[in-house]
Amino acid sequence: MDVTSQDITATDAPRPGRRTFLRWLSAILATIAAVVLSVPVVGYFFGLRKRSVFWVDLGAVGAFPLNQTRRVNFDNPLRQPWDGVTALTGVYARNEGKNEEGADQFRVLSVNCAHLGCPVSWFPQSGLFMCPCHGGVYYADGERASGPPPRGMFHCEWRIEKGRLQIQAPHYPTLQDTLTASAKRCTDSSVHV
Amino acid sequence: MNYHSLNHICSFRFALRLSAVVGMILLNAGGCNLSGKPDQADLPVSPEQIANFDQLYTTNCAGCHGATGKLGPAPPLNDPLFVAIIPEDELHRVIGDGRAGTLMPAFATVNGGSLTDKQVKLLAEGVKSHWKSEAPLDHSPPAYAITNEPQTIPAVEEHTRRLAIYQRACAGCHGPDGSGSQGNRSGPGAINAPAFLALISNQALRRIIITGRPDLGMPTYAEKRGRTAEYEPISTAEIDDLVALLAQWRSVGSTAVAEQH
Amino acid sequence: MFNLLKQIGRWFDVRLGISDTLMPMMRHPVPREIEGPLGWWYVFGSAAMTLFLIQILTGIGLALVYVPAADKAYESLLYLNYQQPLGWYLRALHYYAGSGMVVLLLVHMTQVFMHGAYKYPRELTWVLGVFLLICTMGMFFSGQILRWDPDAYWGLAVAGSMAGRVPVIGPRIVHLLLGGEIIGGDSLSRFFALHVFVIPGALIAFLAVHLWLVLKCGVSTPPVAGQVVDPNTYDATYHEELKRGVPFLGDAILKDVLFSSLAVIVVVAIAAIVGPKGPTAPPDPTLAGANPRPEWPFLWLFGLLSLSPPSVETFIMLVFPVIVIAILFLVPFISNRGERAPSRRPAAVLFVIVAYTALGALTYEGATAPWSPKMTAWSGDPVPENFVKERSPVELQGAVVFQYKNCRNCHALDGVGGRRGPDLSNVGTRMTANQLIDQVSNGTPGGGNMPAYGKQMSANEMTVLVDFLVSLRPEDQLPAGAAETPIVTAPGAHE
User: Fold this and answer.
1) Containing domain of residue A7, as a range?
2) Are residues A32 and A101 in the same domain?
């Protein structure tokens, strides 16, 4: 009897149970489809690539005369294989002698101006870095001398390995993502900025 | 409506004519040179590839040595006597490494400058070939290089000899004690100022004494201009003596030198 | 033959329904005045669209050759310029048609603003127009990046540095913008996708809605002083107006055709005569002498940024553009009724005059960029000969120090040299030796525009430099502070 009454409702009148179910089903399926589609795609578009740590060799310590600033250009290992000449990166390295323990001390500065990232030039006669864009000027130690930069130049992480100066491959430095902050982040991977 | 369609036809003819003209322009562009067609020769040369003396000189030297190699504040390079006496190796070295004790900076990349070794060589050769004397020099000039670095405290008779040379060759313009012709702006001015002497090396002094500043009216070691009629060119040793005198003024001051003796 | 063509046409028309749908659209009535001389005000939008069509055409053409890879893009541009027949011309046309599009968009917007055509019921049409302007500017910026030369590289660097100032999420935005840790192939691919897919797609979509709204709301009548817009009565009045209107696909469209043709001819001529822009040097960031400049539609922002004090700089970079865009969006919502005639809207006219004067002045400043030091001035700009002649040995050495210490990079002599600081040709009449020593040693107090040279030069260098600077004055003028100068000084103004 039950079967008959069900059949009647199925043929003669709208079947709210199935229709509602179908509505819900399509809504749920559409939502699932949207989620499984968008999560990886959005992840692809907005995800961050893992920042790897590379050390770049800048040359023997002896190649850097004491208290002189030298421009060193190198091929940035953070490059893509198809980056071409754009992967070339420059830094200014300065041999600052030895500390009390007799360890070599260096100062390695990014060429990118702290103001808007333009490439600064070193003028050894006046001992100043000057930026061609808005005239930011820095002293030999990278401290701001004048002009619009909100801070001094970006310092690269450096180390001496077997008598050779090495720096951590620099990413493009900006005010909230400096080159020293990233070094800290890499050693302490739990910190995420 | 007729009026409208007539209008259409007129503008169509106009448009046709215009497009014909434009088409001609475009066709020409394929075959011959339109002014907008770029020339590969206009591409910028990267700074280290520049191998043209004039261009290198203009961007690196003209600031101090003058647009034409003279009438700059730094000693002129466009000076046949200077070009004749300076060895090319020395010129090469000075451009590349700078000149210690003076304001001449080092331009070679190994010294933190901006010029490749090739470019430094090109500049040295260029100075030699561009500004050499047309006619051969009529007498053999003194050697460029300073022969012996002077002693700061000389013996009395040596000092007297140096002063005598100074009186003969320099005092006419620079005054008896090197303080220049006072109060006269157009005069050659003081050469005993400590700051001046501190910023010029003995070698550079020797060079200026030999070549003078022909662009600014200072005579060479041999010229009679501004000197007595019986003036004879000073010898290479006498030039060293003059340099020694100036070096002495540099270390203790010209009045102190006078009092010492 | 003609009948056959007609039959074929009909066959398609029955299936596509062109004469039922598209033709009425094209023949939609427009106000009668547009047939008259006032119709010339209505031609700018269509001309901008015509140039956009050129952009699509030339863009496709360039994409046939251009390689959007960081190591090949520059070479492919050189190939276009020098090898590919007419490649240079296509590049030039793409650049100048794009520039013309920006110009015409601005003129079109100004006309719509001045005539109050954005008022009810065309508010949304204006909003879509602002979207189109944003897209066009986006095309200009991303297009400059594709011209993969140092300007492109450093343009990205500047954009990255600006984005890096956004609080908290700045570094993420920089990463998103550059597509990686450094400026390189990922950045170029990103901007290629933006320039070729994302922004043009958005632009076409916005343009479609914009055109639909033009059809839907109709073209506004030329403004008449005293005829006010009232949303309650406007539709009925406009409907009456259209009853005596003329079809758009008739004489009304002729002005559009003529002006668009003229615009095309002008950009074609400019492209052929001036030729393509760049690329200059290869995009090698280690090349000396980089002097990046933004494209002309952004020069005003460059100028504004450079002239603003550092304290408000971040605000101008991040907030100001948002405010400008917000104001543009809000225009029809601030006033969507009332007078439309410029003669009755002095505030609107004043706004346009002020805005364009400011844009023009800032663009001029941005183009001349007097705040940028001249990096080669110290070694390349000769000391003027009249500052060398009749100078003492000390002063001559001071002139050498002036060059040697790179003073010339910011200070001109006789108008030649950097223009960041004042021209010092007459500084001897303005400052005494002591004042000069103070100025040179300490720079601008508080870290302004001039660095403190106190530790950058020796006492002897300072002495000869100041001697030289004091000597910089006309022959007949006394040095500053000379006792004889009969100058009436205000109290306290001495020294």
Assistant:
1) 2-46
2) no
Domain assignments of chain C as residue spans, ordered by start: 1-25, 31-368, 377-470
Pair (A93, A27) in one structural domain: no
For A87, the closest chain C residue by CA position comes to: C184
Tell me the pLDDT tens digit for each residue of C176-186: 999 989 999 99
Q: CB–CB of A80 and C185 under 8 A?
A: yes
Domain match, A18 and A90 both: no
Which residues in chain B have their CB less than 8 angstroms from residue C251's CB?
A: 4, 7
**CA atoms of C162 and C166, how far apart (whole Å):** 8
Side-chain half-sphere CA neighbours of B33 within 13 A: 4
Q: Is there a contact between B105 and A125 if contact means CB atoms under 8 Å apart? A: yes
Tokens 């002036």 map to which residue?
A: C402
Distance between A38 CA and the closest CA of chain C, angstroms: 18
Domain assignment present for residue A88? The answer is yes
pLDDT at A16: 78
Domain assignment of residue A147, yes or no: no
* Residue-wise pLDDT tens digits, C263-304: 999 999 999 999 999 899 999 999 877 778 899 999 999 899
Task: Tell me if domain C31-368 and domain C377-470 are identical in fold.
Answer: no
CA–CA distance, C142 with C202 (Å, rounded to integer): 14
Interhelix angle C346-368/C299-307, rounded to 10 degrees, is: 80
B112 close to A (CB below 8 A):
yes
Topology adopted by domain C377-470? Cytochrome Bc1 Complex; Chain D, domain 2 (1.10.760)
Interface of C with B in 341-400 (CB under 8 A): 376-383, 385, 387-400
Per-residue pLDDT at C72: 96
Report the residue of chain B nearest A122, measured CA to CA: B112
Give every residue of chain C whose pLDDT is below 70, as ranges.
447, 483-495
B48-130 and B156-260 agree in CATH topology:
yes
Considering only CB atoms, A69 lies closest to which of B105, B106, B112, namely B112
Find out whether B125 and B91 touch, Cβ atoms under 8 Å.
no
Distances in whole angstroms, Cα of residue B29 to Cα of each of B16, B21, B249, C87: 20, 13, 72, 11
Q: Check whether residue A31 and residue A87 sit in a common domain.
A: no
Predicted complex ipTM: 0.88
The architecture (CATH level 2) of B156-260 comes to: Orthogonal Bundle (1.10)
Can you give the pLDDT at residue C367?
Answer: 92
3-state secondary structure string, B27-50?
HHHHHCCCCCCCCHHHCCCCHHHC
Give pLDDT, residue A14: 62
**CATH 1.10.760.10, applies to B48-130:** yes
CATH of domain C31-368: 1.20.810.10
Q: Are residues A63 and A16 in the same domain?
A: no
C446-465 per-position pLDDT tens digit:
768 899 999 999 999 999 99
Q: What is residue A193's predicted lDDT score, i.e. its pLDDT? A: 32
Q: What percent of chain A has pLDDT over 70?
A: 85
Partner-chain residue, chosen from A82, A118, A134, that has the shortest CB–CB distance to C69:
A82
Helix (H, G, I), strand (E, B), or coil: what is residue A144? strand
Given a contact cutoff of 8 angstroms between Cβ atoms, the answer to whether C75 and C11 are in contact is no
Contact B71 C460 (CB under 8 A): no
Render C218-249 in DSSP notation, one character per residue.
Answer: -PPPPP-TT--B-TTTHHHHHHHHHHT-EEII
Task: Verify that A101 and A174 share a domain, yes or no.
Answer: yes
Number of domains making up chain A? 2
Domain boundaries of chain B, sorted by first residue? 48-130, 156-260
pLDDT, tens only, A72-116: 999 999 999 999 999 999 999 999 999 999 899 999 999 999 999
Spell out, as residue ranges, where chain B has pLDDT lower than 70.
1-34, 138, 150-152, 181-187, 254-261
Cis peptide before A170 (omega within 30 of 0): no
Amino acid at C441: S
* Any domain includes A24: yes
Q: Measured between CB atoms, which of A85, A137, A175 is closest to C284? A: A85
| Residue of A85, A177, A179, A185 to mutate, interface with C, max C Cβ within 10 Å | A85
